[in-house]
Amino acid sequence: MNNRNVNESRLAGCLLGQAVGDAVGLPCERLSRARQRRMFPDLDRLHFFLGRGMCSDDTEHMCLTAQAVIASGGDEARFTKELAKRLRWWLIGLPAGTGMATLKACVRLWMGISPESSGVFSAGNGPAMRAPILGVALADDLRQMQKLMDRSTLLTHTDPKAQHGAVLAGFAAAWSVKGDFNVGWPGRFREFYRAQRIAADAELDALLSKVLASVARGESADQFMDSQGITYGVTGYMYHTIPAVLHVWFRHPLDYRRAIEEMVRAGGDADTTGAILGGIIGASVGKEGIPAEWRSSIWEWPRSLAWMEQLAKPLAESRQTKRADAAVPCFWPGLILRNVFFALVVVFHGFRRMLPPYI
Ligand SMILES: [Mg+2]
User: Taking the model in full, what pTM does it have?
Assistant: First the structure.
């Protein structure tokens, strides 16, 4: 297998892993740990609609980011322009369940505010949805990865915590490409991150140390979050999301199913945590490491899993040539129909949640 094929399979694993993690977590989004277990005792099946799964903004942002890398060839200014353009049109499709900061930033882009100033002050986890694919695509150039990550983050979120968290998630995805999971690897990952990062943050460093200590004590993600006072489920705050994701990754870096189930069961923003973790682990285990019954139960069109997989080839090529290429075409009128259907199912879940079990 030549280098490009290796990259293609890593990229495909990341893309599919993130989409499937999103779909497994989506029906449980914002439910408490206890209530989701009672409503969905079995995660072997997907539960969005008649045993099928669909993907949310977490997957859509990953696709937009991948397309922006292809269409920019990795050039920073062009990447910003391409991603901003895609975020604007994404909003026109009326996506259900958008994060507040991302929504505000996309409206600001439509108002003519430049992509350099469109972000709002927020440390929400939105930019982390765009992190794993950047980490995998630019694993061979971590300085450039951080620069593109900063640009991707600032488009929507300006709190430096959003940048630091997204960059750390990008490093995790890049480590997955490296594939060192021998004894003691979480400590080596921390050293790798410290040595290569452009900017440091003491608060995130302290959180990373707490995660490593908790993993070393053999604690679960739930136990770790309890110790941090996060008992309902993982919130959408970047410094809650990323430590929770890394906690599960450190313990199950090569077991996609177990990791995703544990991540979703940790509750709260389960589609986003499942998506980020799925993207990170997918880069290690590849398409074949993602349970086939989950993959085959995804019901998406026109951005199907097969369509997402197609992004891997031009993405690998553009990283090799460093040249901009045409983005992969998508039947956009189909997206509008799809989004209407998706929104109806989201409304159905909203009504369903008015019924028992309540806790
Ligand atoms: Mg989502």
Answer: 0.97
